[in-house]
């Protein structure tokens, strides 16, 4: 699919032609790498735009002022790499944390091709998070762990004022109930623009209950 073909799909997201071309490049490179590196679930390949690219892109509007973004367990770049590409024109810098070296190679490759401000940390998130306390405006993580676990990992960031953005599927309410057993936090439950059953949890403060 060319940048021109994807323009109607991207219309609700208000991105420039240059950004849409870079996102189309991400899609075509993902398909090329997938054949040998198996970067995303094979079942999601027929809907890369809805399942991965647009699902990631919608997070940009949840934190319009963000300048420094930390994405944990980025995989093949969702949402972090998409946000780095789409946020390039507003000066957004995204740090992508991923422990799998094959996925990190893909992330670096796309960052180079697109010129996106994406810094790849090939590491376990537990070792990287402390460096961003008091610095990151936003922390995100998609399909990485249940909310209670995510809050445990990111609490030092959230306590220091970082906003947490966590896309969740139809189990969002159950994950919130479970997380409330250990944490007190402020949350907005936002609808997803790509999946009527999914939610985006926007968490802005946190306290441990123990
Ligand atoms: C299910 S995938 C989700 C990838 C991507 N966020 C998405 O939604 O498509 C989870 C990713 O997190 C990475 N991961 C898991 N635990 C990690 C950790 N402790 N530190 C860094 N990366 C981790 C895995 O290698 C994998 O690529």
From TrEMBL:
Q: What GO molecular functions are on record for this protein? A: rRNA (guanine-N7-)-methyltransferase activity
Known catalytic reactions: guanosine(527) in 16S rRNA + S-adenosyl-L-methionine = N(7)-methylguanosine(527) in 16S rRNA + S-adenosyl-L-homocysteine
The subcellular localization recorded is:
Cytoplasm
E.C. numbers? 2.1.1.170
- Please provide the record's keywords in A-Z order: Cytoplasm, Methyltransferase, rRNA processing, S-adenosyl-L-methionine, Transferase
Spell out the InterPro entries in the cross-references: rRNA_ssu_MeTfrase_G, SAM-dependent_MTases_sf
Record Pfam families: GidB (PF02527)
Q: GO cellular component terms?
A: cytosol
- Job description of the protein: Specifically methylates the N7 position of guanine in position 527 of 16S rRNA.
This protein is called what? Ribosomal RNA small subunit methyltransferase G
């Amino acid at each position: 699919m060319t940048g021109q073909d994807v323009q109607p799909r991207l219309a609700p997201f208000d991105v420039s032609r240059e950004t849409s071309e870079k996102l189309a490049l991400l899609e075509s490179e993902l398909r090329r790498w997938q054949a040998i590196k198996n970067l995303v679930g094979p079942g999601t390949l027929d809907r890369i735009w809805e399942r991965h690219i647009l699902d990631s892109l919608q997070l940009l509007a949840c934190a319009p002022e963000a300048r420094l973004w930390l994405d944990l367990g980025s995989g093949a770049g969702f949402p972090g790499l998409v946000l780095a590409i789409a946020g390039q024109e507003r000066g957004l810098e995204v740090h992508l944390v991923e422990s799998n070296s094959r996925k990190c190679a893909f992330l670096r490759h796309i960052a180079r091709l697109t010129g996106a401000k994406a810094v790849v940390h090939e590491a376990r998130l537990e070792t990287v998070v402390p460096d961003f306390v008091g610095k990151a405006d936003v922390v995100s993580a998609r399909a990485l762990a249940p909310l209670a676990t995510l809050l445990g990992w990111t609490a030092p960031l959230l306590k220091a004022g970082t906003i947490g953005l966590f896309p969740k599927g139809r189990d969002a309410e159950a994950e919130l109930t479970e997380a409330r057993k250990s944490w007190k936090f402020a949350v907005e439950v936002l609808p997803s623009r790509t999946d009527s059953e999914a939610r985006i949890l926007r968490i802005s403060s946190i306290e441990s209950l123990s």
